Amino acid sequence: MHNMFNEKKAAESAAFFLFRANGKMPILKLMKLLYLAERASFQKFGEPIIGDRLVSMPHGPVLSLTYQHMSGDRPSVEGGWETWVSDRVHHDVSLQDPSSIRSTDDLLELSDDDASILDETWSRFGHMNKWQIRDFTHAHCPEWKDPNGSMIPMDYEELFRALDFSEDQAKELSARLESSSALQSAYSHAHECSHTMAVESRETESA
């Protein structure tokens, strides 16, 4: 369901945690904080903050596209990842410009509900080091499966069941996410087609 992915909200969520950590954090810890916040949003609202693809990797559950941004393997949109988060240095990332955040109110893509979830996540897990929070996800996120050195896509129905939703609720919430993803995909495709037609029209007029 990568069509639901919101890079700007991923970037600002990362910036939220980096700001709370005085500007710098190990990638492993940041990823686990982001995952736990996404998980808490699913549990409380039935919807994600970031809308990323969820996968199981050797060090625990991961937001797949966000991880690609962290690793420098995915281009950034304007106002997205590279606006807020620096390139990784060894195993750490930092705020791109610490002066750009005076408080978390400067993160305009995040709703009050998003900020509340992120704040609760930091209060619960911010004190942990990267190994402690990794071990917590292994022990307390039953939707994670050991991929034996590989990567396994995570099923949304299984996630909702792990969050103690009933079987019917898990199916209904998963279907709703699939529908939202399909709608966003259709919108993105229509927008892309419209942009292409506009470019072709300008080229024809100038020919």
Quick recap:
The protein has 207 residues and is mostly helical. The protein has 8 helices and 5 strands.
Topology record:
Blueprint: H1 7-20, E1 24-26, H2 27-45, E2 54-57, E3 60-63, H3 64-70, H4 81-84, E4 92-94, H5 112-125, H6 130-140, E5 152-153, H7 156-162, H8 167-206
Helix pairs in contact: 1-2, 1-5, 2-5, 2-6, 7-8
Descriptive report:
The protein has 207 residues and is mainly alpha-helical. It has one domain (2-206). 56% of the residues lie in helices and 8% in strands. It is built from eight helices and five strands; from the N terminus they run αβαββααβααβαα. The strands form two sheets. It has a three-stranded antiparallel beta sheet. Strands 1-4 form a two-stranded antiparallel ribbon. The protein is globular. Mean pLDDT is 88; it is low at 186-201.
